[in-house]
Amino acid sequence: MVSIGNPNMDAPQVSIAWRLLDDIGRLKLVLHVMREAVPEVVGLELISVTEAGVVTLRLLKPMSATIRGEWLRRLERVLRDEASPGIEVYVAPKADRNALRRLRGVEVKE
Length: 110
What we know:
CATH topology: GMP Synthetase, Chain A, domain 3
Distance between the termini: 33 Å
Number of domains: 1
Low-confidence stretches: none
Oligomer: single chain
Strand order of the largest sheet: 1-2-3
CATH class: Alpha Beta
CATH architecture: 2-Layer Sandwich
């Protein structure tokens, strides 16, 4: 298991095996881990997986921050254990739907 609790340590790097996989291989591996190792994580769509270990997801349905955070932490931990220690999980930002902010001219970039 990868330790993520010490802020003085260097961040773990992706493994050589991860870097040697092609884009499709990395996608298949992440999808397999998402389905098999963490089946309770639902409502997330895999957008992209990079050679640098960045996994980007999109929320398909609204969920509380507590549940979302717990699922994302669990998913990242399992991906780091099963695929590569340098993986980082991100959620793509949603467009701002607040009409008042749009009227004031505040722009939230995606």
